[in-house]
């Protein structure tokens, strides 16, 4: 039974055609992945289904009283609650029932004749138990723990949580609410490997319906049973998980290309016949064939997605030893504003022991969020000093760094400004360079503050390639990149002649 259906949806922003004639439905229990390149309109389509935006054309039908939960790509949460208090708010009705039980119990303790109160208590307790009253605290603990929160973080105010922690807190709240339709926009961006695997397992057992936008190929393979591809303004549906979708899409493309080429060959032969016989004895036959051509449904040639033309090269050869450490302790020094007389407190995150990174090695750093991976990269860069021990960079090392977030980009400057300032290129070559990263025409004059996450990631890669680095430090390099761009980056990194030290939760990339 369908709980949500879209009928010939179209969306336009001014003269820009985002998508048209989008038709599909989601049944109870469906687990649907929505994929497509950055800018295809996936988030817009989610918001239309949720009723947060109106389509230019078409309609959306939702089951009556359908409970929907939504995790946006960049969520915000304004709350005076603690993390645990925010989760408890999901169970307000159960907690009211629990208080009622406590009140009856207090009355029982003072009652002369407890018979009626005991019956009321038994009935109330039965309802409480059936509603999950004895399980909700365990459910909260299970979900928060699964998403990487520790017990000592339960009392943290929501106001002090980082952006990634807020995303995980909102996801936890959604899972506890158990909506009939769970809509997730890039839910894996701030999850470490343990939390990713936990979420995949949790969603595999999910009884409701799921619609998820994700660029995590492994996640889509494990969670989804249908794939919707939004591309070039059209929606195509595929059965199975992401791997099955890739096979079906390629088979469909090959079939469409074959049918297109066969039709083009038929059209060429027919037009040649018409040209030769337009004024001859076979004039009537030629006119009939022209009518057939005029009425023929033309098959479109399969369209290829634009892909980044990413190249990483260096003309500087690093020494044999790129990085060595000797008992380096990574973390943050004590803060100067600490109260006078208090013992200084260092925030130690990890101790490396002896490490040797040699030229040409490709190393992935794995570990839970907060374990010091990014801090280690920043220490290698020289932005921070080890708290103890030594860390040495080898001879002739030129480092290129891709941080996890692009907050270092100036929001008030244009895409082109950044490339001109980072290089000696003139405007023409700079625009050509940006074109390789899918910034064409007036897009180079966009201010960074208006860019999507995927566009910021592509700009950061465009700037990285200007460095001519022989050592790459990459912190979650595939975050916000669409699947085509991820594949391009993966291929380029495999052919990079230098050294790579990478933090990533992308299991395909690793």
Task: Give short descriptive properties of this protein.
single chain, 510 residues, Rossmann fold, 4-stranded antiparallel sheet, flat
Q: What report would you give on this structure?
A:
The protein has 510 residues and is an alpha/beta fold. Among the domains are: 79-160, no CATH class; 245-295; 321-503, P-loop containing nucleotide triphosphate hydrolases (Rossmann fold, 3-Layer(aba) Sandwich), CATH 3.40.50.300. The protein contains 15 helices and 17 strands. It has helices at residues 42-50, 83-88, 92-110, 115-130, 136-146, 163-177, 193-204, 217-223, 242-277, 283-295, 373-381, 415-422, 427-435, 453-464, 483-495, and strands at residues 2-13, 16-27, 31-35, 57-62, 68-71, 181-185, 209-213, 226-231, 234-239, 321-332, 347-351, 355-358, 362-365, 388-393, 399-402, 471-475, 499-503. The strands form four sheets. A six-stranded mixed beta sheet has the order 5-6-7-3-8-9, with helices on both faces. Strands 10, 11, 12 and 14 form a four-stranded antiparallel beta sheet that branches. Strand 6, helix 7 and strand 7 form a beta-alpha-beta unit. Helix 3 runs antiparallel to helix 4, helix 5 runs antiparallel to helix 6 (163-177) and helix 12 (415-422) crosses helix 13. The longest helix is centred in the middle third of the chain and has 36 residues, at 242-277. The relative contact order is 0.10. The mean pLDDT is 89.
